[in-house]
Design a protein that fits this description.
The chain is an all-beta fold. Strands 4-5-1-2-3-6 form a six-stranded antiparallel sheet, with no helix packed on it. The two termini are 27 Å apart.
């Protein structure tokens, strides 16, 4: 099933928190959730973001959806802070 966003909404695949640091240290349950995601699709009114972009977003301005065992977010274009 595919999410088709409307207006100025962006659908992005939420990044999973790291379970191990680069130096090999295992992280426990109190890991910090990243505030970046990979854009899957965009609404017809989105002007500055395209599918495939990695975005940084306002963490408390999203709608989270779990679909086919993947965690997605819906975020307005104005709540996207940057692309990576």
């Amino acid at each position: 099933m595919k999410l088709n966003p409307l207006h100025d909404m962006v659908v992005a695949l939420k990044e999973q928190p790291m379970e191990q640091t680069k130096s090999g240290i295992l992280l426990g349950e109190a890991k910090e959730t990243p505030a970046y995601a990979l854009v899957e699709s965009i609404g017809p009114n989105v002007k500055t973001i395209k599918a495939g972009d990695k975005i940084v977003y306002k963490q408390y301005s999203t709608t989270e959806i779990k679909l086919d065992n993947q965690d997605y977010i819906l975020v307005k274009e104005e709540d996207v802070l940057a692309t990576l």
